[in-house]
Amino acid sequence: MSTERKFVFDDMRFPFILIVTCFAAWGIAANMTDPLVKVFSKIFSMSTLQASFVQFAYYGAYFCLALPAAFINRRYSYKTGVLVGLGMAIAGAFLFYPAAQAMTFGFFLLALFTLAGGLSILETSANPFVIAMGPEGNATRRLNFAQAFNPVGTNIGVFLAATLILPRLNPATPEERAAMAPEALHAVQTDELQAVMTPYVGFAFVLLAIWIAIVLTRMPTEREARAEGPREVHFTATLGRLLGNRHYRFGVIAQFFNVAAQTCVWTFTIQYVIEAIGGDEAQAGWYLQASLIVFLISRFVMVWLMGFVRPAGLLTMMALGGTALCLYAAFNPGMSGIWAIVMISACLSLMFPTIYGIALHGLGEDTKFGAAGLVMAILGGALMPLVHGAVMDAYGAAFSYVVPGLCFLVVAGFGLFDLRSENREHVSQT
User: Fold this and answer.
1) Whole-model pTM above 0.90?
2) Contact status, residue 74 vs residue 379, Cβ threshold 8 Å
3) DSSP code, position 180
4) 3-class DSSP assignment, residue 305
């Protein structure tokens, strides 16, 4: 088999495996964080909108740190970006310990912002790193394969939340908490916040082990290996080229709404289940776990399907399916609506890496800054949950799923746009 047809270059197989562990790592963090909206709203007796600032801090950090990551990658290397990102994420995870001692919502937001900021740098570096590890012709499929291990992490994250955090929430209602003596309330909150802290500190040690392994491994890409010394950064010229690329611009917009839809669907699953059929947070959390299992299986299925179906076509079909399932759940609260929400994860499974790969295709030397723009689009996960939370407070958990349904329509539009672009290119070549 020729070098051009290989999935990854021979000398990059072990580095590829190490980087894949990073994909799983940020999946753990993201989905261990999703239930915290419900957790903190209960611990601190806040509204859904107030507690949604958990996602604002988490995904807002992605927006703020993606561009600095691009400068690191351009100036030095993808490996440097990965190590800086992991280091910052380790610091953020360890901050959960003093946050639990301080017992303030703001301190937890700081810890989440630091953790997510590191993961932003990590993700901005790791995604294009995987693209650069092999031929461009199968880059989107290779990235989907690497991203297939992200839901392995998401399942672990949800499992940790469902077993270590949610069962330790005190069943007292906000009214009962308000009636407690200060000492009794303090004791309840201390136990609950210790439960929040424990898996994050454990996660910090896992990240530290990955950091050490990457430090000890030589992992240049073929292109980076040819370059000597620091790279010059021509940000203004690069930004001009990216903004002038209509295909890339639409990709960034699509990624914004894709992450918005994903975050909204998973963040508010627990609230939807409790409103639809009752139960407590721990019981409802298992439906979120089911969603992530569907996501995991579907990611590998989508990688296989891309051997037969154009990525943009598959993206379009899944986005339209996501809209249909969201609208069904919005107007049919109950068990069927819950399973519709679970199945939305099958539609989500291919979206992030597919949009990423399609939008970066052909960018050449602008790929590192282009990757930053796509990670900054994760801002959708910071802003749209606030909209979703406000709609939920006003109209209920079921109807609020109209919000991610509309987001999926934008993603479908990008898929159709890419299909038309490919068709025009094909016609011009014949």
Assistant:
1) no
2) no
3) S
4) helix
- Between CA 165 and CA 187 the distance in angstroms is 16
Residues 407/384, Cβ–Cβ less than 8 Å: yes
d(CA 391, CA 398): 10
With contact defined as beta carbons under 8 Å apart, do 119 and 103 qualify?
A: no
What are the tens digits of pLDDT across the range 45-99?
888 788 888 888 888 888 889 888 888 888 888 889 999 999 999 999 999 999 9
224 is written with which tokens?
């980076």
Query: Could you tell me the CA-to-CA distances from 334 to 6, 253, 272, 277, 285 in Å, in that order?
Result: 48, 33, 9, 6, 16
**Range with the poorest average pLDDT among 126-130, 197-201, 333-337:** 126-130
The 10 Å Cβ neighbour count of residue 336 is 11
Q: 216 by DSSP, 3-state: which?
A: coil
The CA-atom distances, in angstroms, between 39 and each of 35, 48, 70, 115, 270 are 6, 10, 34, 18, 10
Q: What are 418's two structure tokens?
A: 């890419």
Tokens of 208: 């530290």
For residue 380, give the DSSP letter: H
B/e letters for 99-137, b = 16+ CB within 10 Å, e = fewer, are bbeebebebbbbbbbbbbbbbbbbbbbbbbbbbbbbbee
Q: Which amino acid is at 373?
A: G
- Decide: 49 and 38 in contact? Cβ < 8 Å: no
Overall residue count recorded for the chain in this entry: 430
Query: What are the CA-CA distances from residue 152 to residues 30, 148, 277, 296 (Å)?
Result: 12, 7, 28, 6
Sketch out the chain's domains with CATH numbers.
8-219+233-429 (1.20.1250.20)
Angstrom distances, CA of residue 356 to CA of 208, 294, 415: 27, 21, 12
Report DSSP letters for 403-414, one per residue.
HHHHHHHHHHHH
Within 135-189, strands assigned E span none
218: helix, coil or strand?
A: coil
Distance, in Å, from the CA atom of 84 to the CA atom of 409, rounded to the nearest integer, reads: 36
| Cβ contacts of 228 within 8 Å, gap of 6 or more | none
What gap in Å lies between CA 128 and CA 148, rounded to an integer? 15
CB atoms within 10 A of CB 279: 14
